[in-house]
Amino acid sequence: MISDTSNILGLDIGEKRTGTARVNLSVKLVEPLGIIDMAQDRKQQLETLIREHDISGVVVGLPLNMKGEETEQTRFTRSVIDELHADFPDLAFFMIDEVGTSKIADGKAAPGVSRDALAAAALLEDFVTMHERGEASNVSV
């Protein structure tokens, strides 16, 4: 369960890298964090982020094609979400459509900040808006 003061982690899951960002729902200031190397121990990397940032919820972008249909990448993302949900059962998980987040990330390019982390930040911005409208429960896993 999340509250209006919860810290939320955003993940833009990829097969090689996963972008990360965080937001506190009371402050609503999204911060890109960096990337998780998917070839390394992703559970350990996530445990560190969750502990360091006192995370109570995770927002994951769901990659759909332009018709809103699932793809191979969608199925990969869902399999990672299933693993994360099993590894971190006390966290609330939310999936939202990630359409357009990469383009938003490209438009916010900044030195030293990965495109993947910026895409995760864009997901969180969408989630904050949904949460403010009372729509966040509609995207829960």
CATH architecture level-2 label: 2-Layer Sandwich
CATH topology-level name = Nucleotidyltransferase, domain 5
Task: Going across the biggest sheet, name each strand in turn.
Answer: 3-2-1-4-5
Q: Care to count the β-strands?
A: 5
Summarize model confidence as the mean pLDDT: 86
Provide the number of structural domains: 1
Shape: globular
Query: How does the helix and strand content classify structurally?
Result: alpha/beta
Summarize the amount of helix as a percent range. Answer: 25-40%
* The CATH fourth-level homologous superfamily: YqgF/RNase H-like domain
Give me the secondary-structure topology.
Elements (H helix, E strand, L loop, with lengths): L6 E6 L4 E8 L6 E7 L4 H11 L2 E8 L9 H16 L4 E6 L3 H7 L7 H18 L9
Parallel strand pairs: 1-4, 4-5
Antiparallel strand pairs: 1-2, 2-3
Provide an overview of this structure.
This protein has 141 residues and is an alpha/beta fold. The protein has one domain: 2-Layer Sandwich (Nucleotidyltransferase, domain 5), CATH 3.30.420.140. Helix content is 37%, strand content 25%. The protein is built from 4 helices and 5 strands. It has a 5-stranded mixed sheet. β1 and β2 form a beta hairpin.
